[in-house]
Amino acid sequence: MTANKESSPIVQTTHGSVRGALHQTLYDDSYYGFDGIPYAKPPLGELRFRAPQDVEPWKDVLDCSQPRDKCLQLDFDSQLVQGNEDCLYLNIAAKTLHSEKPLPVMVYIYGGAFNEGDASSRAWSPDYLMHEEVIYISIGHRVGAFGYLSFADPTLQIPGNAGIKDLLLALNWIKANVSRFNGDAENITLFGHSSGSTSAHLLMLTPQAEGLFHKAILMAGSANTMLHFSNMEYRVAKHLGYSGDNEDVQVFDFLNNADPRLLAAADVWTASELLQNPILKQFVPCVEPYVTSTAILTTEPGELLGSTWSNRIPIMLGSTSMEALNLHYFLQKDEKLLQDYTKHPEYLLPRTLQLHCNSEQQQELSQALIQKLTTGHYHPFANLSTHNYLHAQHCLINARLAYSQADNYLYRFDFDSVDFNMIRIRFNGAKARGVAHGDELSYLFKTPTSFRLDESRAEYATIWRFVAMFVEFARRSNPNAPLTQHLVNWKPVSRSGGRMCLNINEDLKFIPQPEHENLEFYDQLYKEVGLEQYVELSME
User: Distance (Å, rounded) from C-alpha 353 to C-alpha 355?
Assistant: First the structure.
């Protein structure tokens, strides 16, 4: 299977041979990396916007020692268009290519609001995971218009969700090939963060993914409801100079011939829409308008939660203790933003309430929630946005408790490090404190701003505990690892009693979920306005 094991391993896949490289981690562990393995044809020409097609076999040994470009996108920090449309590649990190038993496999889906993200080690390096006996895989998949353009006209063959279909094709490739990299094809864990977690949940709901993974970890994202916006294709086309009617074939022809870099950068939001949807993007997954052989989703996700195949697999899920921390600091820096939300607090309601309640109801609901959440150190608007995240998670847990035959482990990441919570620091500066959306990723991956920690620091211990629990869950569907089981007994969420979770701080503690009472208050408000189906997702 391999040659020149010391530095340049070669593995034969179903489509051709690949050559990897030996890597050294930040903490001096070694592993084999295979970066940029193609799993689909380049989505160019006739394949742009469409479902991916299986990659063509290759004859020569393919050099997979360097990361490939990320998918074409507008970079959030630089506001420059970066990446390449030819981006359907995956990356494999293997602790060892030979062992007595094949290793558990962990497949990661990056976040980025479905509009940006990088699967390569440039962004999320598996250094910490490679301390464990595990196979780690990340998948490059299309984002923005390239991944989520949707047309109702079936002659165009673009019903949407191409980015999720990329992931599905990659999972099929992984299932067929991971044993060649010493991975256990019958023990694959899918995990993702934010929109990556939402993508993982969508894959849990589609019959096409059954058997391609055996457990899942959902980090701050779920797909209980769809957030797709209508006529977005037409609006973007008009923004780029289209002058015709809102007719699918004509709009598609215009967009397909547009400069892809302009398409990646196009922004058509109004100021009001930006306020109401600060984290949503123009192109996101949708309920597909007609059935095809590659369809991911043809009905609302909430209708599938009771019958999905994934009710038979265990999951871990969780979030940080202040998911919307960044909003707290943005409000301090932007007086106009504070004034706008003070005038229109209903803009901060969950989108479900925005869509299904009239303006008077929205005002009443927002005032009730803000009054309830005016506690703690953070602005009530940030508290409200945080609880929106948590309430979606809460509804999913309720549905799982009603229908799943497998365990559900809930965590709450609450480590407020001075200098190692990289997302908080990136957006708010070194003086900010709190645990923001994405801060837990600093303890799973080496990022561009990570640094080697002294072994005496609590952050150092937290990395190895967090990683050990994730890998142990991947290994045997139970996160109580040898490193942590003497510190805490993390039990699955129970159908009776209070909602318990693992609180991850300098210490590990199994505690009642602090926000649970507030989330039940959300439930009450939903029911008062006749939206029981959105909080009682377990209903027949």
Answer: 5
